[in-house]
Amino acid sequence: MTIRVVVVDDEVLVRDGISMMLDSESDIEVVGQAGTGLQAIDVIGETRPDVVLMDIRMPEMDGLEATVRIVEDPGASARVIILTTFDPDEYVYEALRSGASGFMLKDTPRHELATAVRTVFDGGAMLSPTITSRLIGRFANRLAVDTKTSNRLEELTDREREVLVEIALGHSNDEICERLFIGAATVKSHINHLFTKLEVRDRAQAVAFAYESGLITPGDTDI
Prior knowledge:
Low-confidence stretches: none
Helix content: 40-55%
CATH class of the largest domain: Alpha Beta
Strand order of the largest sheet: 2-1-3-4-5
CATH topology of the largest domain: Rossmann fold
């Protein structure tokens, strides 16, 4: 099955380069490009992609608002990966809260970018420990803990909380197995349960919830 992708960036050379890299993969096809968030909404409506690679700072409509519109559109099934540099601002954190499924650097090697597209297409989230700590951890401590969100932690078991912390630190299922000394099936079960209880759709939103609720804050753990 071919994964249909739209690339959104206000720099023509950047989006052309990314498109060329992805089109060289046998299972990925770039079906559209856009230079602004507003254009992205139109292109996505016309092409119905599976995955959108979204820049943040663009004219007319930034990537944050475009991400919100894409995620909230009941007729669209596209999942969003934020394209960023390591000059992030709070827009990036807001994009994660709004439903983005991952973050990638613009200078990411081709094979890693393709892996990210496949991972998100399969329902996963692309959040490496480095991305998690620098983009989420840097700004989460500036945001007040939401009491209502924090109270929802009471719905989780102790083990589910532990698994949520591991997810927030960017650890994979295999790493969670090793760190908590539990089996792969058990990890998947805990993740499914906590996703249902917290009403989050993927790991990206789970990370945002963990910081927003105050379950974990930068500096608590060596990440």
